[in-house]
Amino acid sequence: MIPRLGTFSSDAVAIWNAGVDAIRAEPLVKREVVVDDQWLTINDRSWHRDEVDRLVVVGAGKAATAMAAGLISSVGSWCEISGWINVPGGTQRDLSGIRVHVARPPGVNEPTTCGIEGSRAMIQLLRSAGPRDLCIALISGGGSALLPLPRKGITLDDKVTVTRYLSHQGASIVELNTVRKHLSDIKGGGLLAACRGLELVTLVLSDVLGDPLDLIASGPTVTDPSTPQDALAVLGKFDPNRTLPANIYNVLDSRPLSKPQVTCRSSIFVIGNNAVAVDAAGICAESLGYNHVMSSARQCEGAAEEVGRHLAEMTMQMLAGGANNCLITGGEPTVSLVASDRRGRGGRNQQLVLAAYAHLLHTGDESLPWERFALLSGGTDGEDGPTDAAGALLNESVHRAARSLELEPSEYLARNDAYTFFERTGGLLKTGPTGTNVCDLRVVTLHPSATVNRFPGG
After folding, report:
1. What are 47-83's pLDDT values in tens digits?
2. DSSP of 290-354
3. Cβ atoms of residues 31 and 72 within 8 Å
4. What is the 3-state secondary structure (H, E, C) of 167-184?
5. Which residues does residue 376 pair with via DSSP β-bridges, in sequence order?
6. How far is CA 73 from the centre of its chain?
7. How many CB atoms lie within 10 A of CB 157?
8. Share of the chain above pLDDT 70, in %
9. Crossing angle of the two packed helices 246-253 and 156-168, in degrees rounded to 10
10. Is 113 strand, coil or helix?
């Protein structure tokens, strides 16, 4: 089967959506949690009805509401459920027995006082759990900003300052969360230490490449293997002159706190990640008639601009081939931001696609067969930076609009203003919150020639 000429953009979006659909949190949790008359089973762990009085549920992340809904649907009336989860605005809904607490506004991925309130409520709930209470933590990407509980000596403003600074400097999620853990009383195992229940079971939807459990949402249910010196090493890389608030360094330089004693058993299960999304996208591509190549990064990929240029190079290599090709990649690059007085709007996916476009222009410009391919990149959570877009799409229509408007991609790249560029050219990918989050998904679709016989029915 040959993909229809002119459908590459819609095919690319369909393939991307198939990847996102495969890691939607509600059905993933429903599949993971199985109940019959006598037993509750989660992955390879089972509990008899006679040993559990109540499920105590806590959690945080962009997918926390959907995860909790899946849990409630599976458990039904098997036992009482009570809980508290911190979620971003725009993802909340009413759930029986579980308080869904909006801990930050939509599109503002930073800690707030509402987040502190919710973090304290979760700590208290786990501390009040009894020996017949099975505790379940629902953790997904975005959880770090939704679980603020600053250590003594640090203010919320201090944490916001250091988070913004490291993000603007292009720190990876691994580097950022290493610092966050040591400035918090809930991250780095704080929820686990608070639990007094029968057992704490954590279901994780991973937004950190390679699935390091201690770094996803800064590991609130994982004993922290890192040290304050590790956090200081990250800060030394990005803030060698110690310009960040002195409180941050005072706490990290002080004698480290002793590790709190863990009193209950703990089990952690990753129910979805970037590789799952990439695999599902590949299955969709094959069903649409594409020969496809897939890869999912295992660690931070570096600058979005470099990843975009590499994707452009891969696209040109594919154009030189003779097959109906589709490239699907997953990962999470970083973006270094310019000063706020020069900065426009955008996110890493929009920056990546714009960098790919700039490279294609520089390499081939009008000699490229723009009608033969489409390229897109989007965040699986439906958010890309502080914007209402998941990412961006590059195709012939976007290229023609950019040429007609005489837009220079490099100028928009230089001021982190990819959103404005794609808003003007019709290339924004908008989905709204997806209820999941497993990093980013990129798709390139193309046809080997500009004229082709339609397949039957096309």
Report:
1. 999 999 999 999 999 999 999 999 999 999 999 999 9
2. -EEEEEE-SS---BHHHHHHHHHHHHHHHHTSSS-EEEEEEE--B-PPPPTTT--S--HHHHHHH
3. no
4. HHCCCCHHHHHHHHHCCE
5. 393, 443
6. 24
7. 12
8. 94
9. 100
10. helix
Average pLDDT over the chain reads 92
Which residues, in sequence order, are CB contacts of 151 under 8 Å at separation 6+?
182, 183, 184, 185, 251
Could you tell me the two tokens for 288? 């649409």
Q: CA-CA-CA-CA torsion for 53, 57, 63, 67, nearest 10 degrees?
A: 0
Q: How far apart are CA 446 and CA 318, in angstroms?
A: 8
d(CA 343, CA 349): 16
Beta bridge pairs of residue 99: 84
Of how many residues is the chain composed?
A: 458
The dihedrals phi and psi of 318, each to the nearest 5 degrees, come to: -65, -40
CB 39 within 8 A of CB 181: no
Amino acid at 308: G
Residue found by looking up tokens 């990918």 in the block: 429
The token duo for 346 is 């955008």
Task: For residue 249, give both structure tokens.
Answer: 């360094």
* 213-259: pLDDT as tens digits: 999 999 999 999 999 999 999 999 999 999 999 999 999 998 776 67
Show the CA angle centred on residue 11, arms to residues 9 and 16, nearest 5°: 100
